[in-house]
Amino acid sequence: MPPPLHIRTYHELTEADRSGLGEQVGAQHRRVAERLAPVHRVVAVMSGKGGVGKSFVTALLARALARAGRRVGALDADLNGPTLARLLDARGPLAVTAGGVEPVAGTDGVRCVSMAHLLEDGKPLAFKGPGSDAFIWRGALEAAALRELLGDVTWGALDMLLVDLPPGVARLHELLDLLPAPPDVLAVTIATVESADAVRRALNAARERGARLLGVIENMAGPQFPGDAGDTLSREFAIPLLARIPFNPGDAMWQTLGERL
Ligand SMILES: Nc1ncnc2c1ncn2[C@@H]1O[C@H](COP(=O)(O)OP(=O)(O)O)[C@@H](O)[C@H]1O
Ligand SMILES: [Mg+2]
């Protein structure tokens, strides 16, 4: 088994390194830009809210696009609840070569990289640091992990790289800090008012940072979740409601969604 990626955090840098931090960050940006140069388009899938189906939508959409002949990558940026690899049946470990980290081929040929490929089964992301600062260091480590993945993975030529984000807006900001240009953004919501509130915050954050909002997807549509969050957000942001996805939709739903992007 290849060695796991070494994740550097600022905490681990020596004093000499710390003083060269600005230079290192610049080098990191160049590395990310080089890795993503053959990637035609980056699409971030976000919601601000957990459990609404971001990973489900990312995986099924990626597969439909791949079946339609597009070269698709899927990056799991939810480092605490990495579920994307399982949904794509992309089994690790990742091959780490001198050239970088190679994605794993998942269902329908979607190229997938997930934190799950780096973690031992079931164990949470480990971090070093004083107990009282645990929260801060976890955040720093997660940001560092995303930086490492974007800097190290050799996606090759892709028509689209889908990035599955965790709840909240922190990782979206980190992604925006790292990418050479803002990604396109797909928002996933369920129909409820609470979900609309969380997704609204995330959409505002994305728009403020210059990301193009592709539209909103209302997931788990049906009597279980009453509301009209999809229509409301579509109207408020003047973006399309791209799909209303019921529980366990068929292939045609994903194909149609893929064609609308
Ligand atoms: N449209 C759907 N039909 C059936 N199951 C779904 C649907 N959307 C989500 N799920 C399931 O609901 C759970 C939560 O979805 P998930 O994609 O993990 O949410 P998130 O990534 O937003 O936290 C998962 O078990 C997922 O498979
Ligand atoms: Mg998820």
Unreliable stretches (pLDDT < 50, length at least 5) are none
Major beta sheet, specifics?
8 strands, mixed
CATH H-level superfamily title: P-loop containing nucleotide triphosphate hydrolases
Count of structural domains? 1
User: What number is the mean pLDDT?
Assistant: 87
Beta content comes to 15-25%
Bound molecules: adenosine-5'-diphosphate, magnesium ion
The CATH architecture comes to: 3-Layer(aba) Sandwich
Structural features:
19% strand, Rossmann fold, 9 helices, binds magnesium ion, single chain, alpha/beta
Secondary structure topology:
Blueprint: H1 15-19, H2 21-36, E1 42-46, H3 54-67, E2 72-76, H4 84-87, E3 95-97, E4 100-102, E5 104-105, E6 111-114, H5 134-152, E7 160-164, H6 170-178, E8 184-189, H7 193-208, E9 212-221, H8 229-237, E10 241-246, H9 251-259
The structure holds adenosine-5'-diphosphate and magnesium ion (MG).
Adenosine-5'-diphosphate (ADP) binds at residues 47, 50-56, 83, 219-220, 245, 247-248.
Describe the structure.
- By secondary structure, this protein is of the alpha/beta class.
- The chain has one domain: P-loop containing nucleotide triphosphate hydrolases (Rossmann fold, 3-Layer(aba) Sandwich), CATH 3.40.50.
- Helices cover 39% and strands 19% of the residues.
- The chain has nine helices and ten strands.
- An eight-stranded mixed β-sheet has the order 5-6-2-7-1-8-9-10, sandwiched between helices. Strands 3-4 form a two-stranded antiparallel ribbon.
- Helix 2 (21-36) packs across helix 5 (134-152) and helix 3 (54-67) packs across helix 9 (251-259).
- The radius of gyration is 18 Å and the shape is globular.
- The termini are far apart.
- The chain binds adenosine-5'-diphosphate and magnesium ion.
- Magnesium ion binds next to helix 3.
